[in-house]
Amino acid sequence: PVDGEKLSHGLYHEKQLRSLCAVHCMNNLVQGPYFDEVYLVEVAHGLDAQKRVALGGAWLEGQASGNAREDGFSVQVIQEALSRQGLSCIPISAESARGALTEPCTEKGFILNRNEHWFALRR
User: Fold this and answer.
1) Residue 6 pLDDT exceeds 80
2) Segment 36-46, tens digit of pLDDT
3) What is the mean pLDDT of residues 7-12?
4) How many angstroms separate the CA atoms of 104 and 92, rounded?
5) If you average pLDDT over residues 98-110, what whole number do you get?
6) Residue 77 in contact with residue 65, Cβ under 8 Å?
7) Which residue in 19, 45, 57, 119 is a FRET match for 28, CA 20 to 30 A apart?
8) What are residue 121's DSSP bridge partners?
9) How far apart are CA 116 and CA 96, in angstroms?
10) Rounded to whole angstroms, how far apart are CA atoms 4 and 23?
């Protein structure tokens, strides 16, 4: 199948291209092409602007924030992008996520990171 299409058994899947595992992870989780690199870069730049304001301009324009890197996007970018679509992404260590640890089957899915690679698990 062409990348980004429904597979024969009905699941949507995108294969990773370049360092865009966050994009593909999110689209695989929500089962459609809802996120792209341009959108996540815009989200990252918005987070950078918020950081500059919060620091009173102490963080210089040319400095790298870590939100959009050559090797991918930060968890903050993923959280904000999902939030803008009405979805939540809560760190598993958060108090509000304790239920996910005790009853993971009640969750729609999980976004995981291992060795700087994002991937999704969904029901």
Assistant:
1) no
2) 999 998 998 88
3) 76
4) 11
5) 89
6) no
7) 45
8) 110
9) 25
10) 11
